[in-house]
Design a protein that fits this description.
Strand content: under 5%
Radius of gyration: 24 Å
Structural class: mainly alpha
Largest sheet: none
Helix content: over 70%
Shape: globular
Order of helices and strands: HHHHHHHHHHHHHHHH
Distance between the termini: 55 Å
Oligomer: single chain
Length: 450
């Protein structure tokens, strides 16, 4: 055979293949289902965070302490506790893990190409850890300078740990993720039992009463302590900072290793597993999503009902809440996060709901910007350097504020994305991650905004 006649040469030098490059996920490669679910999460998480923007932080395990707990205020608490508390954070964590898997999948396509390019894997690792390092810094700025309830710092740490685990099979991602979420239960139950012991000791030994009062002040503060917290938030920015900084430090030092690490890392691994199975990308049939929703929502809401009944049975005693009650809602959050995800996947498959899922997807594509915007809006409303409404509104009124911010963010997200490719925070994070200014204007990326 004459190879030359076919345009080949035995001695021809192979042409070098183009070097693969890693870059941000392009708009056409995004999953509408994931963006819509992220939109649900960023809006829903405000329903819980509003308590900690507007009320003393001790309400976490002692809800009757402030914000009203009768009539409409109680119903507002009940509604938020049942449908939002811990569930939205769980969804966010799942999606964060899915994002890691999605970026790894894109890098894997490059590595499995004709080059078999090992440097691409190294480049992806460098990009991932640089991305997490910048998120860690964003979390520090957010936590210390804006609001102590920051989640970004925690996510950065969990994201660093989750990266090498992304290679596990979906089954093992989900199994290990579930086991990690359970670590919190014995930790917090142990704390609750310790508090129960010291309280019983204080009741029988007057000499231990003062020690118990100091120990329990973080959950059942004296009126003077409670008022000092309120005054600090109604003060100047500096007075608020002096209260916020140690609170943020304690959150990072104790709350993350006791709670946030296990819950968020576990949910990230579950998210990686569900992404690999196609659950979060809308690949399953409507029947499977409906079955998943029916099972997980039934179990989840049954557990939440037990949480409410147990807390009410002992008049929301914070020791009982720590030891037993909170764990029902905590377990429920994992089931409900998956159930909500299944419902959103079904909605994305329903043509009649396309306008709603489109609004949610726009909001979700700007989740980082919208999350930070919620902090800026709420601290301006409630802190002393703004309107100074901290501690002045009941839970029903706070829920109305939440709805107003929801409407604002659902409206401004598609308008912003009409002209810009990313939200402002997303643009900054991507530019820092890839160490190159990303095009922000839609004209800069060749999009018409349609």
């Amino acid at each position: 055979m004459d190879l030359a006649a076919h345009g080949h040469s035995m001695s021809a030098t192979p042409q070098p293949l183009p070097k693969p490059t890693l870059q941000p996920v392009q708009e056409q490669a995004r999953y509408n289902s994931i963006d819509s679910l992220r939109g649900v999460a960023v809006l829903g998480i405000l329903a819980v965070n509003i308590w900690f923007f507007a009320l003393p932080e001790q309400i976490m395990y002692n809800p009757p302490l402030a914000g009203g707990f009768e009539g409409p205020d109680y119903l507002a608490w009940l509604f938020t506790h049942v449908f939002f508390e811990i569930k939205m954070m769980s969804i966010f964590s799942m999606l964060f893990g899915a994002g890691i898997a999605m970026m790894a999948e894109r890098a894997g396509v490059l590595m499995l190409g004709p080059r078999g390019d090992v440097p691409v894997a190294r480049s992806f690792a460098a990009i991932h850890y640089r991305r997490m390092a910048w998120l860690l810094l964003f979390g520090m700025i957010h936590g210390y300078l804006i609001w102590y309830g920051d989640i970004l710092f925690n996510y950065a740490i969990c994201g660093m740990i989750a990266y090498p685990l992304r290679r596990l099979t979906p089954k093992w991602c989900i199994i290990i993720g579930l086991l990690l979420t359970l670590v919190f239960i014995p930790i917090f139950s142990g704390m609750g039992l310790m508090f129960s012991h010291f309280r019983a000791q204080a009741q029988s030994d007057p000499g231990a009463a003062q020690a118990w009062a100091q120990m329990s002040e973080g959950f059942a503060p004296s009126p003077e302590k409670l008022q000092a917290t309120i005054d600090a938030h109604r003060g100047t920015w500096w007075e608020t900072f002096l209260h916020r900084a140690p609170t943020t430090f304690m959150m990072q030092l104790f709350v993350i290793p006791m709670y946030g690490l296990w819950k968020n890392l576990g949910m990230m691994l579950i998210g990686i597993g569900l992404f690999k199975l196609g659950f979060l990308t809308g690949r399953l049939s409507p029947g499977r999503y409906a079955a998943a929703a029916a099972i997980t929502l039934t179990i989840g809401f049954a557990l939440v009902a037990l949480s409410v009944l147990d807390m009410k049975a002992l008049d929301f005693d914070f020791v009982r809440t720590m030891t037993v009650s909170t764990h029902f809602n905590y377990l429920a959050s994992t089931f409900l996060a998956v159930g909500y995800a299944a419902v959103v996947m079904l909605a994305c498959k329903t043509a009649a709901l396309a306008p709603i899922t489109w609004l949610l997807s726009c909001t979700g594509r700007m989740a980082f910007s919208n999350y930070l915007a919620q902090s800026l809006i709420c601290t301006t409303i409630f802190y002393g350097f703004g309107l100074g409404l901290f501690g002045k509104l009941g839970r029903a009124e706070l829920l109305a504020v939440v709805v107003a911010i929801w409407i604002l963010q659902l409206a401004w997200s598609p308008i912003w994305l009409r002209f810009f490719a990313f939200g402002p925070a997303e643009w900054a994070w991507r530019s820092l991650t890839y160490w190159k200014l990303q095009p922000l204007s839609r004209r800069g990326v060749g999009l018409d905004g349609a």
